[in-house]
Design a protein that fits this description.
Layout lengths: L2 E10 L4 H11 L3 E10 L4 E10 L5 H16 L2 E6 L4 E7 L4 H11 L5 E8 L5 H4 L6 E3 L7 H15 L3 E4 L8 H6 L4 E6 L10 H7 L4 E8 L9 E8 L6 H24 L3 E4 L2 E4 L3
Parallel strand pairs: 5-6, 5-8, 6-7, 8-9
Antiparallel strand pairs: 1-3, 1-4, 2-3, 9-10, 10-11, 12-13
Helix pairs in contact: 1-2, 3-8, 7-8
């Protein structure tokens, strides 16, 4: 029975990379199901994602990995090979809004997202009862200015204890420290309204309403030490008109926040996102 795998690769661009990867697949009797590549002229980097099948005979997976190790050294590449059926272990962080987390949980339950949610962390207990029907571990980790370091230490312990590969700030209204951002680099996704940086601070939708904004947006991005400046993965916009009240804008914002976050987590979990000098390369499926 055929086994499916995903190869991801990033390396300095040069002539012959695609041919070299194709030759590797041919040498090990692998069938390429899908292939996406991109060479960035500005950064001089090449990115590739290959979905391929093996026939499963003998130690074919080990042989392919050994072959890829040699190719990786030849190309000075960062690369991974993972089973395509493997689900990513994801930890959700929430505060007092549940719409983004519920969007992800429902998508995971119906098989749209290839993730296993390992638990929910919150700095409040407000939503505990609302999430009870998901039967997931609930971690209440209060955060104050005086306890922030201890709270983040507990968060790191939870990430390790649950074996979580990705942390999603699903409307988690706390800023991670520089140390936490460094330790979780490339493994934390956040969602915010796209009025940033134009409408910072409290009540951004009210600020937007006062300025007569005609487009509402939401942005999902990787978290870095620079607040809300991390590499963008997904953005969603919705046109509105003069009849929208601030409450209408908030409601519309909730919907598109869920969509943007879902798309970002899905792309990350399917290994379609590559970081590229402060930006991202995001391949279609």
């Amino acid at each position: 029975m055929a086994q499916g795998f995903i190869l991801t690769l990033s390396c300095p661009d040069r002539v012959g990379i695609v041919a070299r990867l194709a030759r590797l697949m041919e040498q090990h009797d692998c069938f390429i199901v899908a292939s996406r590549t991109f060479g960035d002229i500005e950064t001089g980097r090449f990115f590739a994602r290959l979905v391929f099948n093996m026939n499963g005979n003998g130690d074919q997976p080990g042989a392919v990995r050994a072959g890829m190790k040699s190719v990786g050294e030849e190309l000075a590449a960062d690369w991974t090979i993972r089973p395509s059926a493997e689900r990513m272990r994801v930890l959700l962080l929430v505060s007092k809004s549940d719409h983004c987390a519920n969007t992800l949980l429902y998508a995971a339950r119906r098989g749209e997202l290839p993730i296993d949610v390992t638990g929910i962390v919150s700095n409040h207990d407000t939503l505990k009862a609302s999430f009870a029907h998901w039967n997931l571990p609930w971690f209440h980790v209060p955060v104050t200015a005086a306890t922030k370091a201890a709270a983040e230490a507990r968060l790191m312990d939870i990430v390790a204890e649950t074996g979580s590969e990705l942390v999603v700030l699903a409307r988690y209204m706390q800023v991670l420290s520089q140390d936490a951002c460094r330790r979780l680099e490339g493994r934390v996704i956040n969602i915010h309204h796209s009025f940033l940086p134009g409408f910072k601070g409290a009540q951004p939708y009210h600020q937007a309403h006062a300025r007569g904004v005609k487009v509402i947006g939401a942005t999902a991005h990787y978290v870095t030490a620079d607040l809300d400046e991390g590499p963008i993965i997904s953005q969603v916009t919705e046109h509105i008109d003069h009849s929208f009240t601030p409450d209408d804008m908030v409601e519309t914002g909730r919907h598109i926040e869920g969509i943007a976050l879902l798309r970002a987590v899905k792309a990350h979990a399917e290994h379609r996102v590559f970081q590229n000098s402060g930006r991202t390369v995001v391949f279609a499926r």
